[in-house]
């Protein structure tokens, strides 16, 4: 009933607004309709008054007769509003075209009768369609007249007159009985306030839920703060617990109140349930009742007095020497802050500290009024905590374990829908617990039965009571949020545009007043907790809790509908729906199409007011949707996605009621927007932000005379001719002055009196004089925030800029390429901008520049290409003793004439300056950084003469970037890291107390002593600091004393040594003085000559091998040595790296023969500690055996790449059992000649995995073939028996040019053969952890014993440079199919492989196939596979 009252009130109010328009009122009052207009308006106003009064009372008793009459009144008033809106449309068209087709006759003139007669004849001969539908114009979005303008719709005066007369008479007929019934209802039910009508259950301190689920961290923190923390020292603290209904505020507070620690801490505890009745006297009485009386108290009935003064004295007296806790639960309203302070006043008179008032409320605005500390904001439980609570709500204290119940999947699906709300868990738990059948639970899930529960302690009633408390305008605003998808991020302007377009809020009046009203509505919804402001700093947005979104759908279910997903049922959608949104998710199935077809029969599509499509969809879906909604005529709001102009909705050009149109599209071929846009005279908001078409606009688009916001790229804005006709337009991104094109003169801007936001005016060289510039009337545009005035390169009249004076409210101003010698007087002489914050001058040559210091609130100044400016400072422009007190950022760019930036010492002329940028100021010599105590960011590029003082200049500096022109950066300081390269100034380490990593190269004025002072230092890197080499950098004594002392204090240290001259024994001594290091990286970058022989990197240093030793360390966890061709790891009694007992990660990369001393004999001692978990060796050419790694049984990551002389000798298979990643291959084993890779057939070869599994192998003609090696013949004229023998370590490869080269065989194959042999002996969990495998052998991997053990873990498999396999055998195919978890498969450099595995499509887990540098056959097959299986990502190169 209340909904029907509100809707009738709203719709009837809209009709009266239409009738208030002078032109519409004149038409309705004309003799053509024969109506008594004054009487009609009086009767409608009377009924509207009664409706408004009924809304303010307690819930009206349900009256079926009144309900039916209100529904009929809503329907007819809607139709009347449409008719009056159409009439107004044609009146606007008359005004634009200079016609009088829809104008009422004035004074009974003959012209009006004649016009009516012409329309009557036309109506009689067959134009039977009502109103605009009688247009003979073809319905085409691009239909134009000869002058390129869209054709006008024709007006049927006779049909319109009959229609309006009939509807208004029908409204009159209904108003009388509605008014009578409302009066009867009013006399029968006395008026009551909304607050009084809300019946809230009383609460108490008694715990109703024995266990507090979740909230553990915040609960314990709150207990601590109340007893021992922040609140203990305060006389009185107020803590608010805020959150939506049903979130658990009262439960949380009950557990706090009854906690033993709280009981012991507070000698007096009081619990009062406030609810909607916030009365200071009554609340004080309730509190007084709960406090024991003191001795000698004057009255034993003190709480019965109504004298507030006496009550508060009693409270203060009883609490005087006691620490107390007062809980005010469930506060719904507090009229003012003064009222709240009045309630608290007796609590501030005590002698003790640590007193608390704890408030619970569902309204954030209440929390803001009462808070003295940051409130506790309760949201939903964490998923795991909610799942535990949900089970408890279903089964209680029974022993049923849902995890083992056959309802587990259904329960989890239901839980996901409840959004972790405790009250939702209770509601649904009650529904499920009495019927533990899957059928019942599925029905609850599919129908969302919890939304239909009516008990006051169910979720929707608990939330709806908050909704019922809202004023009607906020109810309407909130209910239309149901049209947006769940989890939608609401742009503040987007949702307020919707409210305006459908008539919830009025858009008439001044822009500022309208904007303030819309902003107030949003803020009110935030204050009552129905919206939450987002945290994104880039732009303001709002979000809505999922359960509140469901509430919006419930309360608007008769009017609004959001169709989401492909399972909707058209039969479940009420026929009364007027506002519809559809989320398109992927392709539409046949069921969806059938339901859409039913939908157009189910609802009255013609009367839809809102239609919004979310998501992107193809042309097929567009056709279906267009067919479904082709009859729509009354739309106010339309959001659509199109892939061509032809895909616009049917009758698009006749949607004359549109207020808000949003079109999204991909990149289109159409050159411009549809011409039909120019017909939408009622349009207020046109959103083309995501329009992908061209930048052409209809030539008559300025006929959109009511347009407020045109959201589009600037290229669309600047192409609008005669834009001055859009007199209500509030923002124009760019305007281009054009000389010989009508409609692009500055006077067009002068007509836009509401213009605000940001405006750029270009091509100002086309403005002839100051008077022409005045026509823009910029000085009158008080809402303009930012203005950019841009000239071309031509010489211009210098007085034009004087005519472009903006309003004093302007916040940002840019003047670019003004060619005159005299600047504007309003900026250079008489500064009139008290609010200006940003000033940008570029390409100007004024004799006198502005006195920057006289702009009081200037926060950012940008000067670029300013000719004749030699000096900058606080007294620039003749202003003495003026400091830039608000300036935060300054940019000086491309100013070769600027010599110095001066500032008087110790005057701090720039106290708030945070950012300095100097770019290409080639003669600038000084910066007063010492006068900038707040400097945070310093960027300098291309200023070679600039001499900086100490860097960083303040302790607040967080970013420095200094770069010479076209060279490496000199200084880069960011995120606690400092990199210095070739900088010859001083570094102030006093201002770098937070630096954790320093990299220094070629620096003069930095000493180790300064580095030693850095207590925050966590790591350092030093390179080529020649200026320090004699005394410090290459002094072992210095490294072991000064720098060593510094590093010993590092707790998690990291040192990176790059291009260092220290080597061998001296490097050992230097490194061993850093016992606290956790990470060490050494890189020498040894160079090679054309013969690929190592040459010294440093001039004058001869290359020779040096042994480096590491002392024992229990802290070093990560060690990387790369490109150190002259370092070796000696064999001694300390055992290489065995002393590094905490080492977990070791990388040896491209160090030549670093391990050469460990390659001879079978040493019992091993080089690596057993603590290693990750070992990577790349490019090690020493002859090594796998026995060196046999002690590394804790490895999780093993990578052996290009270890040409590595053998399997002494291999311990147990080292691979715990691996998660294994990489073993040699890149260099294939030989290339020119652009061709030579490879041939493996003749009579033995499968390297055969071993005992291949009993029938045949012998070939070679004299001997050692175990698990092969003869590969390359070239056209060689034979297998040309090879005498294959040694144990090499294959004989005969190249095309008859040369012979020894290349290594696959050690990976040898190792995997050993693993396969032991597979049956391995424990159940062995080899189950491997996730990533890269090897150069296919046949060794694709065997059943290996693949069966890797089936559930291996997700990445790469075959690199396999030289044996040409195609996959049946056994290999079967083994591959065992890898059921494989996600990525790579073939790289497998030059002999001719076919892909046939069973790839059967690997359901496979997501990606990569083919790199393989045969043409593989690329062709990969392309075919990609075409057949589009879901598989196939990458080839």
TrEMBL record:
Residues 483-551 form the Disease resistance protein winged helix domain. GO terms for biological process: defense response. SUPFAM superfamilies: L domain-like, P-loop containing nucleoside triphosphate hydrolases. Residues 234-396 form the NB-ARC domain. Keywords: Leucine-rich repeat, Plant defense. It holds the Pfam family LRR_R13L1-DRL21. GO terms for molecular function: ADP binding. Residues 746-865 form the R13L1/DRL21-like LRR repeat region domain. InterPro entries: LRR_dom_sf, LRR_R13L1-DRL21, NB-ARC, P-loop_NTPase, WH-like_DNA-bd_sf, WHD_DRP. This is Disease resistance protein RGA4. It comes from Panicum miliaceum (Proso millet).
